[in-house]
């Protein structure tokens, strides 16, 4: 059902973005670049600052934990911001370490696979 035409044709902003891992990583790389990617200005720096700045901090009733939100992304304690997706997909930027990462899966599972990739990446950095 999650990969069927009805799901793909429906707009549910919180849960059904359809993208590739490379496309998501490039999006976050553009945000890290202050709105510029491959020499092309896509967003003004003040727009990026507004998009990635904390808009809400407090309890999240759905997640049942304290959280910080930007405009559509979670802001993590380590300074990274991004979003996890259904089935264990994830994309985010880490401005402290200077990288963007995206992992998209076609199988529903938890986030353990992306967590392992991030651990290996951080070990390499």
Secondary-structure topology with pairs:
Layout: H1 5-9, H2 21-32, E1 36-37, E2 40-41, H3 45-52, E3 56-60, E4 65-69, E5 74-75, E6 81-84, E7 90-94, E8 99-103, H4 112-124
Antiparallel strand pairs: 1-2, 3-4, 5-6, 6-7, 7-8
The top level CATH class name: Alpha Beta
**Gyration radius, to the nearest Å?**
15 Å
Counted by DSSP, the helix tally is 4
Q: Regions with pLDDT < 50 over 5+ consecutive residues? A: none
How would the global form be characterised? globular
Note the gap between the termini: 39 Å
Largest sheet report: 4 strands, antiparallel
H and E order: HHEEHEEEEEEH
Which strand order does the major sheet show? Answer: 5-6-7-8
CATH superfamily: DD-peptidase/beta-lactamase superfamily
Overall mean pLDDT stands at 88
CATH topology type: Beta-lactamase
Total count of domains? 1
The CATH architecture can be named as 3-Layer(aba) Sandwich
Class computed from helices, strands and strand pairing: alpha+beta
Q: Please state roughly what percent of the residues sit in beta strands, choosing from under 5%, 5-15%, 15-25%, 25-35%, 35-45% or over 45%.
A: 15-25%
């Amino acid at each position: 059902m999650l990969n069927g035409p009805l799901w793909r044709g429906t707009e549910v902003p919180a849960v059904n973005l359809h993208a590739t891992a490379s496309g998501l990583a490039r999006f976050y790389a553009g945000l890290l670049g202050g709105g510029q990617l491959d020499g092309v200005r896509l967003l003004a720096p003040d727009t990026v600052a507004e998009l990635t700045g904390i808009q809400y901090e407090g309890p999240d009733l759905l997640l049942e934990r304290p959280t910080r939100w930007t405009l559509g992304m979670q802001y993590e304690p380590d300074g990274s911001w991004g979003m996890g997706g259904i089935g264990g997909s994830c994309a985010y930027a880490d401005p402290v370490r200077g990288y963007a990462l995206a992992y998209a899966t076609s199988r529903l599972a938890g986030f353990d696979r992306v967590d392992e990739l991030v651990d290996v990446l951080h070990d390499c950095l």
